[in-house]
Amino acid sequence: MLNVSLYRYNPETDEAPYMQDVQLDTGGKDLMVLDVLEKLKAQDPSLSFRRSCREGVCGSDGINMNGTNGLACITPLSETVKQNRLVLRPLPGLPVVRDLVVDMSLFYQQYEKIKPYLINNQPAPAIERLQSPEERAKLDGLYECILCACCSTSCPSFWWNPDRFIGPAGLLQAYRFLADSRDTATDERLAELDDPFSVFRCHGIQNCVAVCPKGLNPTRAIGHIRNMLLQRAT
Amino acid sequence: MVTSVTNLGRSGLFDWVVQRVSAVVLLAYTVFLAGYLLTNSGLTFNEWQGLFQQNWMRAFSLLALLSLITHAWVGLWSVTTDYVTVRQMGAVATPLRLILQSGIALLSFYYLVWGIQILWGAG
Fold it and tell me: Rounded to 5 degrees, what are φ and ψ at A207?
């Protein structure tokens, strides 16, 4: 029997969040954490969590498993369970709506700030804006982000200043558009980032790199943004 | 863009560059002093005083002191704006943060004056 400790909070009935200890028979299988949650929900339908694709593509089921953020659907028990114990908490640093469901508004506001779309003031070509294979290759490791928020919610700088620090997810996307040969708003984008909070709250501790379920490297992207700011200003 | 009027420069990049340059100066000063002490065993007071009477050593020491102060300001400003915030402790945070930052600035200024007095004082 697997010992599971669940973060429970229903703001309509609970005065404060609490940890609920439950036991689950996994049948000796190396289940994914999402399977465990589904089985627990079958036992207690009031348990709330987000999920959708169950294959690490949609980014809905980012939670904190035994202290580490990740996607429940692609994290097998063998990777996270220690001493037959699994502690499940919501992503840290964001307001909890209920149980494992967090309010992602602050995360999305930061994403919105970096204007996550192509800006090009040149007349649109008849068919498409072409890129060389080399220019396209610059976007690898950037465009794959699924906005699960595992990185930003593992970042202490984002915990303390979620309203002012863009956070690793937003900055990875900021660089995705700064690096795009078809985007012509590079200077405006950089000007928006040159304050003491938006980018420079990153102290390079790389929690984001350690937890990214897609294996991306926001710290490296932030380094590239710093270099672009430095080149622009010196 | 996030507005801020209490950080060292008006841009995040400026603070970042200052912190890195000051760190290099402090490293150089530390390595120099450690090297000097290690290669001059049995150092007398007169030799030590003689070192600090040379103008280049005074300039180097003042540069290190200025680096220490600016480095400390950028770092402690970050600490206060991380932990002493309305988000962390409510409305009391803003006056408390400004008092703390003023205290840090005043103490830094006092150390600067004191350091200049020591370096250029009666020697």
Answer: -55, -35
Nearest to B16 among A161, A162, A200 (CB): A200
Q: Does B90 map to a domain?
A: yes
Angle between helices A218-233 and A186-193 (to 10 degrees): 100
**A38 with A62: CB under 8 angstroms?**
no
Residues B112 and A143: their CA atoms lie apart, in Å, by 49
For residue B96, the enclosing domain spans 12-120
**Nearest alpha-carbon partner for A166 in A216, A224, A109, A95:** A109
For A76-86, give one letter per residue: b (16+ CB within 10 A) or e: ebeebbeeeeb
> Which residues of chain B neighbour A201 with C-beta distances below 8 Å?
78
Size of chain A, expressed as the number of residues it contains: 234
What is the model's pLDDT at position B122?
61
Number of domains in chain B: 1
Q: Is residue B5 included in any domain, yes or no?
A: no
DSSP 3-state of A52: coil
Q: B28 in a domain, yes or no? A: yes
- Record: contact B12-A164, CB cut-off 8 A: no
Pick from B107, B110, B84, B86: nearest CA to B97: B84
- Quick one: which of A154, A163, A150 has its CA closest to A214? A150
* A76 DSSP 8-state letter: B
Which tokens hold the place of A101? 């469901």
Q: Where are the beta strands (DSSP E) in A115-165?
A: none
Query: What average pLDDT does range A128-149 have in this prediction?
Result: 96
Q: What is the pLDDT of residues B84-105, one digit of tens each?
A: 999 989 999 999 999 999 999 9
Instruction: Determine, yes or no, domain membership for B44.
Output: yes
The pLDDT-based confidence of B123 (bands split at 50, 70, 90) is low
Q: Is A231 on the interface with B (CB under 8 A)?
A: no
Residue of B nearest to A226 (CA): B13
**Residue A194 contacts B where some CB pair is shorter than 8 Å:** yes
Q: Which residues of B touch A226 (CB under 8 A)?
A: 13, 16
B23: chain A residues, CB-CB within 8 Å: none
Q: Domain of B50: which CATH number?
A: 1.20.1300.10
